[in-house]
Amino acid sequence: MEVLRDSRGWTHVELVLSGGAPWGFTLKGGREHREPLLVTKVEEGCKAAVAGVLIGDEIVSINAVPLTGYRQEAISLVKRSHNALTLVVRRFASLPIFPCNAKLF
Amino acid sequence: MNDSFNTSHYDNGYGQDEYMTQEDEWDRDLLLDPAWEKQQRKTFTAWCNSHLRKAGTQIENIEEDFRNGLKLMLLLEVISGERLPKPDRGKMRFHKIANVNKALEFITSKGVKLVSIGAEEIVDGNVKMTLGMIWTIILRFAIQDISVEETSAKEGLLLWCQRKTAPYRNVNVQNFHVSWKDGLALCALIHRHRPDLIDYAKLNKDDHLGNLNLAFDIAEKYLDIPKMLDAEDIVNTPKPDERAIMTYVSCFYHAFAGAEQAETAANRICKVLGVNQENEKLMEDYERLASELLEWIRRTTPWLENRVPEKTMSEMRKKLEDFRDYRRLHKPPKVQEKCQLEISFNTLQTKLRISNRPSFMPSEGKMVSDIASAWQGLEQAEKGYEEWLLTEIRRLERLDHLAEKFRQKATTHETWASGKEQILSQKDYDSASLSEIRALLRKHEAFESDLAAHQDRVEQIAAIAQELNELDYHDVAAVNQRCQSICDLWDHLGTLTQKRREALERTEKLLETVDQLFLEFAKRSAPFNNWMEGAMEDLQDMFIVHTIEEVQSLTAAHEQFKATLPEADSERQAILGIQNEVQKIYQNYGIRGNVTNPYSTISTEEIVVKWDKVKTLVPQRDGALQEELARQHANERLRRQFAAQANLIGPWIQTRMEEIARCALEMGGTLEDQMTQLKQYEHVIIAYKPNVDKLEGDHQLIQESLIFDNKHTNYTMEHIRVGWELLLTTIARTINEIETQILIRDAKGISQEQMHEFRSSFKHFDRKKNGVMDTDDFRACLISMGYDLGEVEFARIMMLVDPSATGVVSFQSFIDFMTRETADTDTADQVVASFRILATDKPYILADELRRELPPDQADYCIMRMPPYSGPGTVAGALDYTAFSTALYGESDL
C-alpha cells in the first residue's frame, strides 16, 4: 500500500459509496470556474457520510476514471453510477485517517 | 619219356632192414622152397646169360657152370666192367677154388659182405650157395646201384616200380611177389616206357597168364630182356619168389633206365645242346639287349645331360613333360630290359654254372659292370636332369613371378608417379595467399611422406630387377630399361620435390613477411584512420558557443590539434611506407595475386584522401573560429547593451511594485485616495513603456544572435517582461481591488472603520509583509477572530479562501471570507427553496410549471439546462431543479 502524500500532508483516499443516488454530497467548483472540484456539503447520515466523504475533499477520480476537472464531467460520471460509486479524493490529513470503509492507497 | 614221379603210391614199407631181412631170408632159405629154387634157378640163369652173352658165352646150369669159377669171374667182369685178376687156368680143385675166391674177393671188394658163402660150396656146386651167391651178385650189381629219389637197392627198385606204375589204376606194386602175379605190373612197366609196344587198354586183368606171357614176349623181343620167369610158375605159386621177380624186374629197370639213360643221355645232349643253344641264344640276346640298352643309354644320357635351359616356362614344362614321359613310358621298359638283362645274365651264368659250363663273359663294354655303370650314369644324369629341370622350372617360375612382380610394381609405381611430375612443376604458389601457401606446404609435406613411402617401393623394384638380372631372365633388357626409367623419374621427382619445397617455403616466408606488414598496416592504419575521422569530425564540428572564452578555448584546442599534425603526418608516411614495402616485395619476387590486406579494409587511397581532407579542413576551421570569435565579440556588445538597459528597467519596475504594494497596504486615507495614487502610478508606468520596448528590441537582437545568457545582468527579458506585465497587472489589479473594495464597501456597507480593521488585521497577520497571508498566518488570524478551528474545519476554510491552493490568502479573499460570513447572499439552497415553492413541494419541477411562473426566456433557459430528475417518485418530464441550482452556484448536489 502506497500512501501518496505530498509534502504538506495531502493524501489520496479511495472511498466506496453504496446504495444508489442521492448520495448526499454537494460538489462545487470545477475547471469551468477554474477552481478545484471540492465537496462542500455532506448531509448527515447520508451514503456519502457513511462512506467517509468529508467536506473539503477534492475529487480526483470517479469510478476509476481520472477527472479532467470539469464539474459537468464529474456530475455525469456520478449520475452514471447505480448502486456503487467509487471516489478517489485528495484530502489534507496530517495524521493517517482510517475510516471504516475507506481504502488508503 | 616220363620223368614224373608220382609220389602218391610211394610205399615206404621197406626200411633199412633190407640187409637184415635178406640175412633172415638167407638163413631161412637154407631150407629153400623148391618152387622158389626152381624159379630162382631159371631166373638167375637167364640173368647171367643176358650178361654172359656179351662175353659170348652162356650157362646152362647155374650150379654147375659156375663151379670152376671162370664164368663167374667172367660174369663179374662183364657186369662190373672191370678186370678181375687173371684166373687160374687149371682144372684142379684148388684152381677152381682160387678162381671162385677171386670172384668172391672181387665181390667183397665191392663192399658186399658174403656171409657163409665159401668158395668150396660153390666149387662143390651147392645150389643154395650158388643161388645165394648169384643173388648177392645180382643184388650188388643190378640192384644195389639203383637209386631212385634217394632210395636205393630194393626199396629203390620198388619205388621205381611204384613210380612207373603209379598211373595204372589196377596196378599196385607193394612187393616183389604177389603184386606181380597178374602181370599187369609188368605190362604197365613196359607200357610206361614203350607205349608203342603194348596196348595196355586192351589187357584183361584177369588173364594173368596172358599178361605175363605178353610181357615176357615183348621184353625178350624188343627190350632185349630174356625170359627169366615162367608165367605158370608165377600164377600157380601163391607167393612167387621175390628174388626172381626182383632179378627180372631189375632187368627192366636197367633196360628202361638204360633206355632212359640213353634217352636221358640223348636228352641230356639235347638238353646240353639245347642249353647250349639256349645259352648261346641268351648270350646273343644278352649281347643284343645289352647293345640296345647301352645304345639307348648312350642316346639318352646326353639328352639328360643337356642342361641348356629354355627361355620360357612352357618350354621347360614341355621338357619336364618329356622327362615325365621318359620316366613313365620310355624308361620303365628299359628298366625292365635292364632287369631282364641282369636276370638273363644271372640266369645264364647260373645255367652255365649248373651245367658246368664256363661262365659267360660278355663282350667288351657289354659287361654287366659296364651296363651297370652306364645305367648308373644314366640314372645320375637322370636325377641330375630332373633336379636340373625342377630347378630350372623353379627358376623360371621365380623369374616369371619376379618378372610379373616387377611389372606389377613398376606399373603401380608408374601409375602413381604419372602426373606427379606435372603437379610438382606447377607454379601455383605464385599467386597464392599465405593460407593457401600454407595449405600447399601441408599438401607438399604429405606428398613428401608419400614419396618417402614410395622410396621403399622403388628400391624393391630395383631389387627385383637386380634379381632378375642375377637369375638371368630372358627379357632382362626390357626390365632393366623400365627400371632405369623408373629410377630416373624417381630421382627427378626427388629433385622436383625438393625444388618445390624450397619454392614454397620461400614464398611462404615472403608472404609471411607481407602478412606481418599487412598486420602492421592494419594495426596502425586503424587508429590513424579513426584519428583522422575524429579529426575530420572535430574540424567540421558545428560549434555553438556563447562566450568569447568558449571560442577562445576552441581556438586553443584547434591550435593544439594543429600541433599534432606533424606527428600524424609522419605516422601517415610510415603507414604508407608499409604498403610500399609490400608492393616492393611483390614486385621483386614476382608474386602475383592479391595485394589486398586481409586485416584491414582501409586502403592507402582512403588514407591519402582523408589526410588531404583533414588538411583542407584545418584552415577552414581556423576561419570558422575566427568568424565565431568576431561574432562573440559582437554578441558581447549586445549583451552589455541589453544589460545596461535591463539593469535600469528592472529596479525601476521593482520600485514601482513596492510603491504599489505599499499603497495597497496603506491604511491611512480613503480608498479613493488610494485609487488616485494608483492611477497616478499607472500613468507613470504607461509612460515608461517605450523603455521596455527598446529593451525588447535589444532583446530581439540578442535572440537573433542566439545569445542565450547574459552575465552582465541578472535580468532576463522574461524577467523584465514578466515584471512589466506584473507591474501592469498589479497596478490594474490593485486598482481593481480598490475598486472592488469600494464596491464591496458600498455593497456590503462595510464602513471605513470595518475596512480599516480588516486591513489592519490582514496587515498584522501578514507577517512576511508580502501582501498575502500564508496558512499559518491565516490560522492565527482566524483564531484571533474567535474561530475555534479543528484541522478539518480549517482545511475546509482554506479550501474556500484559497481555492487555487496557492497556499496564501490574499487580502481580497480574506475580505471575501470575512464578508461572506456576515453577508446575506443568495445561496444555492435559497434558490432550491424558491424552486421547491414553485414546484409545490415536489422534489422535481415540470416544464409547464416553469413556464407558468417564470418569464418565457428564463423558463426556456431552465428547461434547457435542468437535468431530468431521476429520484424517487419521478414522472415523465420531471426536471431536477436542485442539481440545476447547485450548478448555478457552482455547486452540484449529488
From TrEMBL, chain A:
It is found in: Cytoplasm, Cytoskeleton. GO terms for molecular function: actin filament binding. The keyword Lipid metabolism does not apply. The lineage of its organism: Eukaryota, Metazoa, Chordata, Craniata, Vertebrata. Belongs to the shroom family. It comes from the Eukaryota. PROSITE patterns: PDZ. Keywords: Actin-binding, Cytoplasm, Cytoskeleton, Developmental protein, Phosphoprotein. InterPro entries: PDZ, PDZ_sf, Shroom_fam. One of its GO terms (biological process) is actin filament organization. GO terms for cellular component: adherens junction; apical junction complex; apical plasma membrane; cortical actin cytoskeleton. It comes from Denticeps clupeoides (denticle herring). Residues 12-93 form the PDZ domain. It holds the Pfam family PDZ. This is PDZ domain-containing protein.
UniProtKB/TrEMBL annotation, chain B:
It holds the Pfam family Spectrin. Residues 272-299, 437-471 form a coiled coil. It comes from the Eukaryota. InterPro entries: Actinin_actin-bd_CS, CH_dom, CH_dom_sf, EF-hand-dom_pair, EF-hand_Ca_insen, EF_hand_dom, Spectrin/alpha-actinin, Spectrin_repeat. Residues 38-142, 151-257 form the Calponin-homology (CH) domain. Residues 753-788 form the EF-hand domain. The keyword Repeat applies. Gene3D superfamilies: 1.20.58.60, Calponin-like domain, EF-hand. One of its GO terms (molecular function) is actin binding. Keywords: Actin-binding, Calcium, Coiled coil, Metal-binding, Repeat. Signal peptide: none annotated. GO terms for cellular component: cytoplasm. Belongs to the alpha-actinin family. This is Actinin, alpha 2b. It comes from Denticeps clupeoides (denticle herring).
